[in-house]
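>> received
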Amino acid sequence: MLLDAPSERTAGDAATRALLEPVATGFRPNQVLAVTADPEASAVPLLRERTMVGGLPTAYLCRGFSCRMPVTDAAALREQLEEPASVA
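>> returned
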């Protein structure tokens, strides 16, 4: 980032962007965001078998090789993100 301006990208449709809104807020220097439309075809092993719930965009918060229960709304994701890392 010191040598170049950060890039910004949008992810998916409006429902996906709304779900991911909490990820873009706050200071989380160790945060990594991985997004896929097809988990089984993803090159990121962590995304495999992380499917949508009820046909809705779904977020899985993972810390220390353990993932929380999937959530489908921004408020629930925000709540998970605000929990201390040792809770995950």
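>> The longest helix spans residues 74-82.
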